[in-house]
Amino acid sequence: PPSPLFHCVLRVPQNRLCQHLKLQFLYFIAHIHNFSTKMADALFSKMSAALSTPAGQQAAKKINEVIVYEFPDTGAVYVMDLKAGKAYKGKPDGEPACSFKMDEKVFLELAGGKADPMGLFMEGKIELDGDTDVAMKIGKVLKALEKEIKL
What we know:
Elements: H1 4-10, H2 16-51, H3 54-61, E1 66-71, E2 76-81, E3 86-89, E4 98-102, H4 104-111, H5 117-122, E5 126-130, H6 132-144, H7 146-149
Parallel strand pairs: 1-4
Antiparallel strand pairs: 1-2, 2-3, 4-5
Helix pairs in contact: 2-4, 3-6
């Protein structure tokens, strides 16, 4: 639900200054909403670049599977295709070995090292569908790519 400040700004009497402030406020809210999506886009782009390096290709071969990340809060879907050595936004070509479902904010906290994946899973903030062995190995691949992926 919108914040109380959001309701307060929208109830200001109509005049040009207030309309301008309302538009600026709505632009700010839209910008904040899109910020996490832009961060996830940037992170998966860097992940794709890292997977194309020799170290990335070697790390990807250790799993050699397709992993999907679904973010219900933004509707975004990302694929980490370790068979092809790339990461991208969109649906996978085939059936993934496993898929994660979480809010994009949770993913960004994980990527930034600010959250424990097992703790988030136990709290129900991350859902896993598919091969748990593959899911457990992803951390090793990301650790190998850590220097290239940092934002």
